[in-house]
Amino acid sequence: MKRLVLGLAMLGLASLGATAAAHAQGARFGLGGGLAAPTGDYGSADKGGWHALAKVDFAIPMAPVGIRVDALYGRTSHKDQSGSPVPGNTQLAGGLASLVWNVPARAPMFKPYLLAGAGVYHVKVATSLGDASETKLAFGGGVGSSFGAGPARFFVEGRYLRVQETGGAMSFLPITAGVTFGLK
Question: Which domain holds residue 166?
Answer without folding.
Answer: 2-12+27-182
